[in-house]
Amino acid sequence: MSSLKCFLYIAWSDAAYRVGISHDPMLDLKFLQQKGYRQMQILSQAIPIGLADFLLGQVANERQRLGQPYINQALANHRPLVKQAVKMWLKYEWRHPIEEVVESIYKKLRKLGDKLQVDILSRREEIAGAEVADCSLPEDMDLDSLRQVLDGRLLFLEEIEQVLLERKIRLQADLETVLQCLFLQGDIDFIPGITWEGEHLRCQRCGQSDNIRQTQCFSCGEYHCYYCEGCLSTGESRLCKPLYGKRAGCRGVQGEAISVRLDFSLSRAQKDTASALKTFVRNDKERYCLVWAVCGAGKTEVSFWAVAEALNNGGKVLYVSPRKGVVTELLPRFKKAFPGIQPALLHGGIREKYTDSPLTFATTHQTIRFYRRFDLVILDEVDAYPYQGAAVLHHAVQRATRETGKTIYLTATPTSDLMRRVNTGEVKLVRIPARYHGYPLPEPEILVEKALHSDNDGQVVLPQAVLELIHLTVEGDLAQLFVFVPSVFLAQRVGETLQQLVGKPPFNDFAGEWVQYSHSKDPLREEKRKRFSRGDFPIFVSTTIMERGITVPRTNVVVLFAEKDRIFDTGTLVQMAGRAGRSAENPFGRVWFVGARTTPSMKTAVEWVKNMNQEAYQLGYLREDLYRSTGERG
């Protein structure tokens, strides 16, 4: 853990003064001599970077931090009517105002120190230009190396050291010295991990203020340091730890044109959407686009042409998802579509986190280390946990995008916030109402069954109607069956109950192993997921952990206790229903929502599916034979 303490200082020339912070003020004066600054006064003792940065913002405006000409300072102290007179007076008589500026800053620092109850001021010490004659500035090679390392990234000091190690780069100068010079040149941003924002502390890395905790810091030696509890899993953010960031440089010049290679044909719905996304990327006036696609629409493939458009313009592309499984599974498909590009993959299990590539796949947590890097961000499963409702991840993904960059949201179940942004015109909407195979979505049936309940002693009662649905699926449709339940407890109880019941009528003496159950606390959940996908057993009882990322060729879906709308909201019900009928070989399936009552979420989920089917039919996105039967043409 690398802490940094800084001094506040003021440096001046014959024409201007400048207020700044540095861990090594003599280095700053050496650098500023190139701009005519000849003297410096130290304003504070060495204090943590977060405190120093806050104080700098309180005592100096942006112009004073970059270099304030004296004449502007003098004019600022006079009313508009006498400004012209002051200008004329300054032509004939000049009095050095630096002492007044220093006294003014000292007064402000004293008040702030009293308010924060910290000792800030130091013994007044001046540094003359001659005193830094032996101080050396880093070579251009060191500066260039760090510019490349930080390009489009926001990193702590130890993370920068890791990149240098991975890339086998050895600097001639001290790392902090090179970074400070890059900051003085305006090439990088120098940001404290935690600082004050108004009356509150805020983590500059994750953007949150709720998880800031006070601690005695063994790194900076302060008894009243602060750290961010929310950042612990991805690197500790502290008041005394700086972040170094560099916005990505100008777009590169693309050589050979990049084209998409597919060994299959897109559906008409996919082609229309791919064309719309390509146009979106080209349109400078549009920044956000929502692709609302039904489950199984093949939304990944439609993004290929948007990716190609961005890459051909020399841009960088990020494909990001809340789930590790999504980015891992999609990587081979993109490699096949773009054989000339070697994408980078980032998730918690990848050790090398700083690979450079024009195309990056990452989980949302990994975006916290990017800084205005990507021209196009494709956010898959935008409604899924843990991205949904996580302000930290929203902040990280947004900061990873260039200020002029574009974002494409992919989902089958858009959130109310996304739809609000669509309705206000902030986000462009593109819909894919049909699956790639051209068959309509299975429309859920609502079954009110008050006999379905769980007793106080933990026993689950499955009514005869539910058992008949299960029997119909396995022996009638010869299909597998997802049985979704709202809790870990019910997954175990329903699973165990079914394991007993399938050996009795109406079932044909099924073995208990034909029923498996899983949930988030099940250590074998991934193994069971794979076995079910292979068809090793027909009935899988699960919580919502299996609502995404699993495709079974021939399956029905039953949602038990569907009235539990705190768990089974509209989006969740649509996702679970979307497990049925996904494959082209077996595009049909049945879906039942079974509950003690009908909820608004159940009704809305059914309406969503029906509306998508109707839109797909009207747009001619369904199979030709479905139109012949009605005498219409698609």
UniProtKB/TrEMBL annotation:
GO biological process, one term: DNA recombination
Pfam families hit by this protein: DEAD, Helicase_C
Membrane-spanning intervals of the chain: none
UniProt KW keywords: ATP-binding, DNA-binding, Helicase, Hydrolase, Nucleotide-binding
Stretches assigned to the Helicase ATP-binding domain: 280-432
Keyword Amino-acid biosynthesis among UniProt keywords: no
Single annotated GO MF: DNA binding
InterPro entries with a match to the protein in the record: DEAD/DEAH_box_helicase_dom, Helicase_ATP-bd, Helicase_C-like, P-loop_NTPase
PROSITE patterns: HELICASE_ATP_BIND_1 (PS51192), HELICASE_CTER (PS51194)
Domain annotation Helicase C-terminal: ranges: 466-627
This protein's name: DEAD/DEAH box helicase family protein
Natural source organism: Metallumcola ferriviriculae
